[in-house]
Amino acid sequence: MVTGALYIWIIGIIAAGCVLIFARMSYEARLHDVTRSEVMLERLPEAFNGSRIFFISDIHKRKLSEEYLQAYQNKADLVILGGDIMEKNVPLKRVKANLEILSKIGPMYAVYGNHDLKADPAGLARLLREVGGTLLRNENVLLERSGEHVCLTGVDQPLSKRDGYPQLPELGGSDSSSVCRIVVVHDPAWLRYVSAKPADLILAGHTHGGQIRLPFFGAIRLSAFYRKYDCGWFKWYQPQALVKRPQMLISRGFGNRRVTLRLCCPAEMHLIQLKKAPEEC
Question: How many angstroms separate the CA atoms of 16 and 245, rounded?
Fold first, then answer.
């Protein structure tokens, strides 16, 4: 039989546990962590070997810390924003402050996310121009270094998933089939519209990694497709395709949706170093 004193102890322990879990969830949602990765790409030109990409997705309404990110100023060859740079009711002044901080890290390119389109896409496009960034809407940018090239392609976010995605813009030039390609797309659901992955490296966000994840069960609020493609690195081998070994990173994102809480899914940004994979014998 549970006595009154024991009952109070049990309630106290449960309450303390709830407070600790809530504190942990709030902490994970407010992190400024930068996840470092190294990715080996077979078709990467030698001139780009060792180059770095700073990738951030799904900022939503969060504020970036200039003090924290000062250590990364001029430390990346490329800054890529994977969409949902803002959301409804976020002041453009805050968005511009975030963009100014990111622009100090390196040359900046961005794609729209679904929340950007619902908020103020024209205002966001203007702010990107003002800070020297480039918005890619189904466009290619040919990055050049020592006479060698990498193609950066930004896939535009459809207003509705029913609209689907257009084909990637074609690469120009007679040697286009051998160009290393990086594709930035906000929503990994884009994979449903491509028979073979058409890029050496794909960068995506949107999922937030589920935001709330349980040990052993994973994300609790993602559909079947997104539970498969929730967050982290994915690799394929498609020997008959132009790109033999495509890879994709789906970010857990920097910001949060609805509540400023995360569990087993801390907020993140990324510093990705590109390495040329050794040729197979």
Answer: 49
Rounded Cα gap, residues 16 and 7, in angstroms = 14
User: Which residues in 57-193 belong to E strands, given as ranges?
Assistant: 78-81, 108-110, 134-135, 139-145, 148-154, 180-184
Overall residue count recorded for the chain in this entry: 281
H helix intervals, 165-277: 224-228
How far, in Å, CA of 152 to CA of 33, rounded? 25
Asked whether the whole model's pTM tops 0.85, one would answer: yes
Tokens of 195: 């028979």
Q: Which residue has the tokens 């290393």?
A: 180
Give the residues across from 274 on adjacent strands. 39
Average pLDDT value for residue range 194-206: 95
Domains and CATH numbers, the chain: 31-276 (3.60.21)
Tens-place pLDDT, residues 98-138: 999 999 999 999 999 999 999 999 999 999 999 999 999 99
pLDDT higher than 50, residue 265: yes
SS3 assignment, position 26: helix
Helical H segments across the chain, by residue range: 4-29, 66-69, 92-103, 114-118, 121-130, 224-228
List, for residues 86-102, the tens digit of each pLDDT value: 999 999 999 999 999 99
Do the Cβ atoms of 48 and 145 come closer than 8 Å?
Answer: yes
Indicate the residue type of 238.
Q
At 65, is the secondary structure helix, strand, or coil?
coil
Measured distance CA(272)–CA(38) in Å, rounded: 6
Query: What is the predicted pLDDT for the residue at 175?
Result: 63
Q: Report d(CA 257, CA 238) in Å as an integer.
A: 35
